[in-house]
Specification:
52% of the residues lie in helices and 14% in strands. The protein is of the alpha+beta class. The strands form 3 sheets. Strands 1, 2, 3, 4, 5 and 6 form a 6-stranded antiparallel β-sheet that branches. A 3-stranded antiparallel β-sheet has the order 7-9-10, covered by helices on one side. α2 (102-118) runs parallel beside α9, α4 (135-155) packs antiparallel against α5 and α11 (283-294) packs antiparallel against α12 (302-326). Keywords: Capsid protein, Virion.
Length: 327
């Protein structure tokens, strides 16, 4: 982010005391508190819904979250001299959630449960006809992509060391992906778009430790740009997966987090089934394959090999978690 972005603050009714550079953003302190200026690449229509979503969640009693700020002209997007689009949001001083602190993670899970209760917004879904995302359709699309890359690797002549290694382990994960989708088809009515629309629950879309700030007033949730209409299990799964990957897939830790979440929002039988299949599907493998195929196959970072090796190492621990915590 260049210094010209500082001039974008002039579009807002705020009196700046000082500015600081953050990670891909500009922070500014004012008499009313802190604000953050970030580049925005999405459509305006989606941003309009995000503003309504954040305000509605606050009205529903969950106040520890960011809000979008409109500029002097009443718009949500402002531009610098090069026509780069920016958005301004409220910001809170704090640190990221510590995934090594069990009590802190339990508190974050309770925060997520309260957030999900406040994100039940049938009026907003109806007013904007927000599209729903179905887990089965999402994974069917992933499987088509996995099939395409598998064929590409098999037909490729001269293979790199990484490609040989990837292809050697490909069918192990690909079969898991196919099996998960096949089993999910038995629950189609519970997880389809119609059911999600009827439930009318939004998800944060990226609920992980980077977006959960520990502040003097408790946890504050930020960066809602990936919000979507889906089963709240999507958020719980992502938070749990990130946590368990760093803690050897501890069954006791996973159960503690689920218990903490359920102090605020009870999981239904359908929720537990969906959580199981989100873990059963090899999403991390799909991400590695997707990154490889779509980001230049001529040069493959060594980090990709490391991620795949770590994934294989954790398979036994992950299976134990699935069998003992979610079945």
């Amino acid at each position: 982010m260049n210094d010209r972005a500082v001039s974008v603050f002039e579009n807002y009714e705020i009196e700046i005391l000082r500015t600081l550079k953050g990670r891909g953003a500009l922070l500014c302190e004012t008499q009313e508190g802190w604000f953050i200026l970030k580049e925005y690449t999405g459509p305006l229509a989606r941003l309009e819904i995000q503003e309504k979503l954040l305000a509605a969640v606050k009205d529903n009693g969950f106040s520890q979250l960011e809000q979008l700020i409109r500029n002097k002209e009443g718009g949500l997007i402002s531009y610098d001299q090069d026509r780069v689009p920016y958005i301004l949001k409220t910001y809170y001083e704090g640190r990221e959630c510590n995934l090594k602190d069990v009590r802190e993670c339990q508190s974050a899970a309770r925060t997520l449960g309260r957030l999900h209760n406040a994100m039940h917004l049938p009026e907003l879904v109806q007013e904007y006809d927000v599209p729903a995302l179905c887990m089965e359709n999402e994974y069917v699309k992933h499987n088509r992509e996995l099939k395409k890359v598998r064929r590409y690797l098999r037909e490729k002549g001269q293979k790199t060391e990484f490609e040989i290694y990837l292809l050697h382990h490909y069918d192990f994960f690909y079969e898991k992906a196919l099996s998960a989708v096949e089993e999910l088809q038995g629950y189609a009515d519970a997880f389809d778009e119609a059911a999600i629309k009827k439930n009318s629950n939004f998800c944060h879309g990226d609920f992980q430790h980077h977006n959960i700030l520990y502040t003097p007033d408790g946890f504050t949730v930020i960066n809602f740009e990936k919000y979507l209409l889906d089963n709240p299990i999507r958020d719980l799964y992502l938070f749990l997966r990130k946590l368990l990957e760093k803690n050897a897939w501890s069954v006791s830790l996973g159960l503690n987090i689920l218990t903490a979440y359920e102090t605020q929002r009870t999981l239904s039988e359908a929720d537990r089934i969906q959580l199981y299949y989100r873990f059963a599907y090899p999403e991390k493998f799909w991400k590695i394959v997707n990154f490889y195929y779509n980001n230049g196959k001529a040069w493959i970072p060594g980090r990709n090999r490391e991620k795949l090796e770590n994934l294989l190492r954790q398979e036994t621990e992950k299976k134990a978690f699935l069998d003992n915590a979610l079945k």
